Amino acid sequence: xxxxxxxxxxxASSLDVLQQAIAVVQNNVTNSTTPGYVTQTLELASKPFNLxxxxxxxxxxxxVQSARDVFAEQSVWSANEQSGFSSQQSATLNSLQQVFDVSxxxxxxxxxxxxxxAFSAWSASPSSLTAQQSVLTAAQGVAxxxxxxxxxxxxxxxxNTQQLSSSVTQLNQYTSQVAxxxxxxxxxxxxxxxxxxxxxxxxxLEQISNxxxxxxxxxxxxxxxxxxxxxxxxxxxxxxxxxSLTTNPSGSPVSTLSSSDGHNITSLFTQGKIGGALAFxxxxxxxxxxxxxxxxxxxxxxxxxxxxINGILKSGQISTxxxxxxxxxxxxxxxxxxxxxxxxxSVVANLQASQLAAISPGPPAVANGTASQLASLVNPxxxxxxxxxxxxxxxxxxVASNVGQQASTASSDDTVNTNILNQAQTLRAQVSGVxxxxxxxxxxxxxxxxxASAQLITxxxxxxxxxxxxxxxxSG
Length: 476
What we know:
Blueprint: H1 2-30, E1 40-46, E2 49-50, E3 55-56, E4 59-66, H2 70-99, H3 107-124, H4 129-187, H5 195-211, E5 214-218, E6 224-228, E7 232-236, E8 239-240, E9 244-247, E10 255-258, H6 272-289, H7 297-315, E11 317-319, E12 325-326, E13 331-332, H8 341-344, E14 346-347, H9 369-375, E15 386-387, E16 390-391, H10 392-432, H11 436-475
Antiparallel strand pairs: 1-4, 2-3, 5-6, 6-7, 7-8, 9-10, 11-12, 13-14, 15-16
Helix pairs in contact: 1-11, 2-4, 2-5, 2-6, 2-10, 3-4, 3-9, 3-10, 4-5, 4-6, 7-9, 7-10
């Protein structure tokens, strides 16, 4: 009789373990699409069987085992860092590329072409008021083209800075969330292995990796220490360290990031969306419109155009007199700071078409000498009309080509890095993700085992009732 009761206890214990296993499977299925969740498996172990020592065997569980692979997670984080950087770079550089016309028909190159054509027509008819007015109109077009181009580039920079600020805010929110999860892990004993908390933690870490390069160390109590670039702590236990952004468009660098203790950590953001936005603000943008450390190619070009044209006109004469009337500048701009040259470029206020100096004083004086020099700037043979070894249009073409090359590289990198990220996420899913087919098979197996154990209990109950009945009849 005692062996029947022992067997009954074993069957009941099995029912409890199998019920836990079924609950784990159901939880897996329910959370199969939950970000950061991985397959959980209830471990099963045999109890000792030795009837002489009253060990009747059965099944027990040491606990729930997680299928999470930290190496696979780290591979996803690494790929996500690169994807975040290239996606941010691709978006801003493609927008910047749209500003620079390479056809020569619009924007700065189109305006310069119109001005050179106006100079050529003027040189053919130096006393023509119509030709002179065409020069003024074309010059106004050049100034407007520079102004507009700078404005468009600055707007892209403003948009990028807003994205940078938003990304920094997100980073602080995510690291705060990690600190809260760490607090919950420490507060609740054993919660470091809780599947729900682990899903939240790893999902948040993946979000962080898209914004910045991180190294994650897991402590013995299950909490995560998050280091920016492997150096500056973003999360230590239950403490979160905020990152702050400072932007100064006229400074060098334009944007800087600081830790909560005031240290400059800008150089640590080499990847992620924040890294991509920083690279655009601190490297790409200043090379074009300048910053506290450089003039910028657009300002350099605007200054070259204005100075060379003004120099030629000022060397000429409006009239030979007597007395001779010297030429006057065509363009004006604000020279200080140098980063404001292109944005402030304009035709000299109240300049009249008749004030354009077409005469080269010689000797001998040439009626269209100055106008001819200006017309030759389209294909210069002297230092006038050139920046370094390039004509104005060639210099602009180099700037546009460089932007286009950067945009093309960023776009290609974005495609490659997106594919690498997808592959890493797919591999992680294969290693530790929830397979509904596998869970269905497990559920069927556990249900059948549960039914078999239940049937065993029913059989033991019937046998027990029969024995009790037989004993009552004997005793009666």
